[in-house]
Amino acid sequence: MNSHKPQLLVIVAALITLLITTGCVNVQPVAAESPAGAQANAAPAADPVDAPEVNAVTEASPVGFENVVVSTEWLAENLDNPAVRVIEVSVIPGVYERGHIPGAVNFVWHTDFVDTISRDIVSATRLQELARDAGINDDSTVVLYGDNNNWFAAWGAWVFKLYGAPDVRILDGGRAKWEAEGRELAVAAPTVEPGDFTASGANANLRAHLADVRQIVEGDVDAALIDIRSPAEFEGTIFAPEGFQELAVRAGHIPTAVNVPWAQAVNEDGSFKSVEELRELYASVGVDGSRPVVVYCRIGERASHTWFVLSQILGYDAKLYDGSWTEWGNTVGVPIENPAGTIWGAQ
Questions:
Q1: In angstroms, rounded to a whole number, what is the distance separating the alpha carbons of residues 266 and 298?
Q2: Is 1 contained in some domain?
């Protein structure tokens, strides 16, 4: 009898394997038990690597409007929620100091979200430092808002998503809607406990560079281009809105681009239009999510608003060309289209 034991064991093992592979038996993995105190003594997370961009997998379907956009009511109810961190990104100097949403930390778009030496976005290391100082953890819900119709709040959302923040949302209607409803404002900056947010390498699927756009223009890549500036800028009638200093030496737009001004995506109070209205808006110019899309404006801030709509609300494969017209319009050797015929400020 003992001589048959090896054969019996082989047969039993084969039967077990068969049951598992056919789905008759569901085997759950058992997590290894950590030794006492191991978590407390674990090494801190490694600092981010700034250099390589990461070709992360983009989401093919909408995240869900309610999961990327928060109402003023929701935020008012969650101001004391420790899992929620609020960031203000406004343009007008002193507006944060005059009064801000309670608990909100101030980020300055032209110093905190960009590299102040080279024309580039902030490094992963620097963003991680700022985010931790703002009390942001890896599992935080980050809500951004600001003035100017949330232009730079959307820019901040793009930067946070670029560096791997998993839950980033925008306050619907921004600062203007919060104030119009007479909601509470605080004057003193909050004191927060440092967070543990760890920035990843930049997600290359969310950002387009000049070379990427040129491939679209030359027909080497099948993707749509959306210019979200005003019709006057798109046609080349003006170089930039009045009062803005960042200019290009040429007026007009990038060849093959279609013009959908950013403001067409919002209601009169600055809140986002419905998902159905947004789909219809962009489908009217051939952008329906069936192919990638790149958006641009003058310096990237207005286009980040449209990027948020396309990428985060609608779930399209969308990239922001943050170099935008001030890079393309000033670059030697790249083509433009200028229906107005404006050349070097004249016609």
A1: 19
A2: no
Q: What is the pLDDT of residue 242?
A: 83
On whether both 137 and 196 belong to a single domain, the answer is: yes
- Which residues does 251 contact at the CB level (< 8 Å), separation at least 6? 233, 236, 237, 238, 239, 329, 338, 340, 342
**Residue type for position 172:** D
What pLDDT does 36 receive?
A: 32
The pTM for the full model equals 0.82
C-alpha 297 chain-centroid distance: 16
Task: Show the domain range for 262.
Answer: 208-328
* Whether residue 168 is found in the same domain as residue 231: no
Q: Find tokens 């798109």 and name the residue.
A: 234
What span, in angstroms and rounded, lies between the C-alpha atoms of 288 and 311? Answer: 12
The verdict on 103 and 186 lying in the same domain is: yes
CA-only gyration radius of the chain, Å:
25
Distance, in Å, from the CA atom of 103 to the CA atom of 113, rounded to the nearest integer, reads: 20
Q: What confidence score (pLDDT) does residue 116 get? A: 85
pLDDT for residue 346:
59
Which portions of the chain are predicted below pLDDT 70? 1-63, 344-347
CA torsion sign, 182 to 93 to 152 to 281?
A: positive
Does residue 72 sit in helix, strand or coil? Answer: helix
Check 297, 310, 313, 320 and give the catalytic one: 297
Amino acid at 343: I
d(CA 95, CA 130): 20
Q: Any catalytic annotation for residue 24?
A: no
